[in-house]
Write a structure and sequence with these properties.
The complex is a heterodimer of chains A (284) and B (592). Chain A has 284 residues and is of the alpha+beta class. Chain A contains four helices and ten strands; from the N terminus they run αααββββββββββα. In chain A, the strands form two sheets. Chain A has a five-stranded mixed beta sheet, with no helix packed on it. In chain A, strands 4-10-9-6-7 form a five-stranded mixed beta sheet. The longest helix of chain A has 32 residues. The N and C termini of chain A lie far apart (79 Å). The relative contact order of chain A is 0.14. Chain B is an all-alpha fold and 592 residues long. Helix content of chain B is 63%, strand content 0%. Classes of the chains: A alpha+beta (284), B mainly alpha (592). Chains A and B meet through helix 1, helix 2, helix 3, strand 7 and strand 9 of A and helix 5, helix 10, helix 11, helix 12 and helix 13 of B. One copper (II) ion binds next to loops of chain A. One copper (II) ion (CU) binds next to loops of chain A. Chain A: It catalyses: 4 Fe(II)-[cytochrome c] + O2 + 8 H(+)(in) = 4 Fe(III)-[cytochrome c] + 2 H2O + 4 H(+)(out).
Chain lengths: 284, 592
Amino acid sequence: MHQVTERENRRAGAVVTLLIGLVLVAGVASTVYATKRWWLPPLVSATAAPIDRMFNLLMVSIGIVFVLTQGALAWFVWKAARNPRALYWHENKRLESTWTVATAVILTAFIVMGYQIWLSVHTPPAAAAEKTAVVEVWGQQFYWTARYPGPDGQFGKTDPQYVDFKSNPFGIDPNDPAGQDDIVVDGSKGPIVMPAGYKVTVQLHSRDVIHSFFVPQLRVKLDAVPGQVNELYVEPTEPGTYEIACAELCGVGHFAMRGEIQVLPESEWQSWLAEHAGEHGAAQ
Amino acid sequence: MAHGGTQAALAGHATHAGHHHEPQSFWRRYIFSTDHKIIAIQYLLTSLVMAAVGGFLAMLMRVQLGWPGRQWPLLEALMPNAFKGGRMDPDFYYGAVTMHGTIMVFFFLTTALSGGFANFLIPLQIGARDMAFPVLNMISYWLFPVAIVFALASFFVQGGAPGSGWTAYPPLSDREPLGQTLWLISVFILMLAFLAGGINYITTTLNLRTKGMSMSRLPLTVWTLFVTALVGLFAFPALMAAALMLIFDRVGGTHFFDPAGGGDPILWQHLFWFFGHPEVYIVILPAMGIVSEVLATHARKPVFGYRYMVGSTLAIAGLSFIVWGHHMFASGMSPTLGSMFMATTLAIAIPSAVKTFNWLATIYRSKMRFTTAALYAVGFVSLFITGGLTGIILGNPSTDLYFHDTYFVVGHFHFIMGAAALFGVFAGLYHWFPKMFGRMMNERLGKIHFWLTFLGIYGTFFPMHFLGTAGMPRRIYSWEAYQFLGDVATLNHIISISAFVLGAAQLIFAFNLFYSMFRGPKAERNPWQANTLEWWAPSPPPHGNWDEAEPVVYRWPYEYSPKYAPEGVDHIPQWLPEPAVATAGRDGAGAR
Ligand code: HEM
Ligand SMILES: [Cu+2]
Ligand SMILES: [Cu+2]
């Protein structure tokens, strides 16, 4: 049963070495090529620079481990097809504890670095910071809307009884003076606006199911969960228009829940605020 | 006929030789069987059929993602409801997404490994005659088709299969049509089946080990299957509770998860992932055990680091319960909590790395026989490395914020669950097929199957990481609207074509499986010259497993190529009392 000659077996081993070698070479080559074509979109956020650095560090580290381990695998397989007899060797306490500890040390270093970045992206802008802005973003099937406190910096009260999908979809209370200058933007008709060089707080809400606010170029992603408010902090640097995608399955229209963020230079941001103050409706 | 027991060894414990099994009707024997081996084969074949269904859905998804917007008149003719006007209906697409994930995770991988292999191997490898509770075992199997019927029925009810993904996050899953309720009932029944199975595996492993089979001599497959059953015992109830609560929300007017009634959608995520993360280890641990075993046997070399292998299995099992939050880094959790989950997640990478190093050390300076089973075991190591490494990027919450819910995650878990665990199943099938059916599989077809599958998997799942770095969200029916994605069309064509190659390669396997089952050359008792007890039983083993007495165990299962063995002898099976006996022939055959 199962009669295989030494030669056939050696050939079979060579094929496996070849396959793993191919994976190694093609894996590295395609990754290098992908950095030119399918990599992180250009970064336009000051807060996220350390994230990209961390990513590069991790990529290089796992790339090295990938090459070393797949290379070792290919090499051991090649030899295993040719060895006259297997080595009787099944324990080496020092070797085993060494690689366990070495892995632990490297991972601990990653934990410490990642921890600092993780905390930094969750730190709200200090109250004393000069240039801050707040925008309330709502996800719903299947588009984004946004509300700004307007020039007075205060959100007005809302109440479902005032909701009118044509003229006041947020239900801003007409009797609350703080709400008079609030600005509502319907993201399905035009972009949500943010000022460049400001520390922007995005307060995320959802009207129905869970959505996820994902702006690849700003490197932000956070779920919009009905019944709770999630906050993210971002500092856009480059004026321009960037796409928002929804990253959480939210129904059949999920794939089409595309929106846009327009980052304005500071001066245009001020005039935008003044110009649109008091627009509560869906009209743009 | 090769037979490893010596007269002396048999005489020593021929106490239970009167274990008779009356001739049974076809129904008792093959359908409502209480024999663990028949149940194992029932589980395996059913789960393979489900894999075919899940795979078919995947191919349909790749048709859509490779060429969104294209019309497919032929597919419309075949499936008019799914391809209205020649284009895939998005509703159908999301139903396919949900059912593909559910079928592959629950109905294929978990059942093949913890239903099929656990049933077949545990009694045979510990020297028992059957499971501790054979009738419960039969019930556990028969709950499985019931669960399948509920799940598949959702395709045919009003509104079709649920479109909320295998994770079924509410409130979306609150609003899905009837199919979602069927899905929840199905999952609940399946968890019951797994719990019944798990109780059997735990009791059997603890109580029915034959003489000499101490825990420190257990084959690594039994270790991993046993620990997996323990993990299931704690993980499944969380999902059962969540499923029940969601059923109540949907049909009973409660609001556990619906904020409109004071509920909390995040509660579902905690319950789901408290189950869900251990679940991914429920799938990979048995595959790790199988691979360790197959590698040692075909490399003719002892498993390296047996103690570390057992220790890392236990460590992974324990840690797997405190990492679930890494699936929720973007849910708005407190940063402090997130830091905890980051630390535990990266901690679980340590035992995973230890296992990888041990496999490499097992292959190092071995004398490998490149059977199909061995190829799959080696392929597993390569896939596990690739998939494990990307986990490091996801385990770092700062980088995960970008990659969460993109195709990078899809690439990561398909390498590990979709590919490595699949390779574990294949390694196990090719390895134990002779014992299961008493016949050999065709090695040439097996090798072609391996080459195509290995390349197909890398071609399909490796480029998904680039889709992820480009920012492509997962679970989208079409990527055409996004400009930031740039030129992902090329990647998606490559992926779809590789996926079709991968899918087609499985037809070779299906042919080989069924052809060899009936027509393959007859297998010896121990065709691979392995050391574990199942190879001492006839191929296939009769009801009751041991034609004479239960075997007695004298050593650990990995005594391959020992230094003291004489020329020409490269293994000393567990059941041989004296190494010297081995001199009488390759597996002691001459000693009789
Ligand atoms: C080196 C060890 C590993 C690390 C550090 C790791 C880390 C992670 C992290 C952080 C996520 C969540 C990513 C996200 O959704 O944003 C994830 C997802 C996932 N991992 Fe792993 N992982 C590892 C190994 C494994 C293993 C062994 C399996 C399975 C056998 C596995 C299966 C999965 C699955 C199924 C998901 C996605 C679930 C979903 O969202 O549908 N991972 N992994
Ligand atoms: Cu969405
Ligand atoms: Cu996990």
